[in-house]
């Protein structure tokens, strides 16, 4: 029986499942829309589709590395209760290991990766949604690479709330790399070099400083010098090498690196914080438990 676009559209409207899932189900059901709907329900895809508009801002961040590559991922759930579930933790670990092994180009490619049993990573996520009854997503990942003459630093904070990868050039000391990754986790830098800071950001800071100084009746001829000092302090907050090092605040990160490994520099870093930039839904623990029992 030929499958038409209207059949796919009708199945999507009835189940909320994705177009490709509907097409596959119709193929398997020989074009029978009702049977295809039953197949989708049995696979948990309908249940997963119904969770698609939910906010999943809890979950975990994971980070790991091998000799040449390092990965940080964020996998989300709707509630912290589910993020503590062993099945969820195992799925996050599977996603982390699979992405590190295959190094996909983007999220779509990552979700299409085949894992154990011949299923894709997306299939595994859908199956767990069906089992648990809560939206689960692989939100994002990042991969960094290094040479044999460089070092990775990996650090996971608060059991999966913040994950950092740092790449150091001029050293192969992974412990030193971990110290720098820990620094980034604690102090949340945005850049490495001053030149990376957008001009718009700098101009806004300058405007604020100038207005503050004028409100304090500072003479115009000294405002420029004061603003320069304030901008230096600003750079010291947002540029990783210029931050005060958390283990020795008398030195900047760059100074500390040079003192223990002359020539070592921060080449790259990636910092993921769980749920950053997402709307969070307020829910107490009792409410989370009650939601799981429905």
Tell me about this structure.
The chain is α+β, with helices and mostly antiparallel strands. Among the domains are: 5-50, Helicase, Ruva Protein, domain 3, CATH 1.10.8; 58-150 and 158-163 and 271-293, Elongation factor Ts, dimerisation domain (Tetrahydropterin Synthase, Chain A, 2-Layer Sandwich). Helices cover 49% and strands 20% of the residues. It has helices at 5-15, 19-28, 33-43, 45-50, 80-83, 86-102, 107-111, 121-132, 174-187, 199-215, 220-238, 253-260, 285-293, and strands spanning 58-65, 69-77, 136-145, 151-157, 162-169, 244-245, 248-252, 265-273. Strands 1-2-3 form a three-stranded antiparallel sheet. Strand 6 (244-245) and strand 7 (248-252) form a beta hairpin. Helix 1 packs across helix 2 (19-28), helix 6 (86-102) packs antiparallel against helix 8 (121-132) and helix 10 (199-215) crosses helix 11 (220-238). The longest helix has 19 residues, at 220-238. The two termini are 40 Å apart.
Summarize the structure.
Helix content is 49%, strand content 20%.
Query: Can you name the CATH architecture of the domain at 58-150 and 158-163 and 271-293?
Result: 2-Layer Sandwich
CATH class of the domain at 58-150 and 158-163 and 271-293: Alpha Beta
Distance between the termini: 40 Å
Compute the average pLDDT. Answer: 88
Supply Rg. Answer: 25 Å
Q: In terms of per-residue confidence, which ranges show pLDDT below 50 for 5 or more consecutive residues?
A: 288-294
Beta-strand content: 15-25%
Could you give a short account of the major beta sheet? 3 strands, antiparallel
Strand order, largest beta sheet: 1-2-3
- The number of distinct helices, counting runs of at least 4 residues, comes to 13
Structural class: alpha+beta
Instruction: Summarize the amount of helix as a percent range.
Output: 40-55%
